[in-house]
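so i finally got all the pieces together for this one. its two components total, 299 residues if u count the protein bits. some of the lines might not be protein, just check the labels. i wanna see the whole assembly predicted at once instead of chain by chain like last time, that was a mess tbh
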Amino acid sequence: MTSDFWSMGGYARYVWPCYGIAAAVLVWNLWAAGRYLAAAKLRAARALAMASSEAR
Amino acid sequence: MWTWFYKLASPPYVYGVAAAFVPWLLGFAALAIGYGLVAGLGIAPPDYQQGEAFRMIYVHVPSALLSLTVYTVMAVASGIALIWRIKVGHAVAAASAPIGASFAILALITGSLWGKPMWGTYWAWDPRLTSELILLFLYVGVMSLRSAFEDPLRGDRAAALLAVVGVVNVPIVHFSVVWWNSLHQGATIVKLGAPSMPGSMLWPLLSMWLGFMLFFGAVLCMRLQAEVLNRERQASWVQEAIK
């Protein structure tokens, strides 16, 4: 990679933060959705366990 | 066709389909975004007016288009949920809102990073920028309204109503550059006639757009599974599904 590429014709301080924030938003979406799904599965499993212990 | 439509109203079916789609959508999204990055940052020539700064469009345009698409998905799902009382509609709407809000924020930030060198300011109360900001407020409003009620059913209905009413803002964002005197440039791709861009600049943009859409599909499927589980905790199929 040449330094020309990284300097982006003098616009580096706008172009790279732009891509950095985009990457952060994509990563946040995946992470937050994964965590949300895991929490929902855990809650559902707990509710099922409660229901089966009450039935006993 | 109609049986498929009825199947889509069934929570266990939707849960299974969403789970199966996630890896495929993520895989194709990675391919499309990967090509878009390489071609957009490395191969496309600099713009004759904006120089290298134009490369910001490869994340700005897809995120702005996605913020509108996601809102439309949310409003249609909310409308279906309100009219036919289909619970999965509320689940789709609830899953879409945080994703759409994050892309509206991304569109606003990347737009302002482009605005500073090109317009000389990070922000202007311009019709396009203001209506996009209102779009973000609508997302936030829909999310807060849903969580403001003790009874989840009432929260779902109130949020759905706001989502449907707020959809009027989507064409306002899109056509703001035509209807009013806007600083923002006009449409380049989503318009009648051929796109006003050469192929070497356009293909990476279309690929990034496709990648962002597929990524939205993947994250929507993940969140949709969670929303369906949260609404169906007592159902008998859940035990099988979460094994």
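Chain B has a mean pLDDT of 91.
Chain B touches chain A through 37 residues (CB under 8 Å).
anyway lmk what u think
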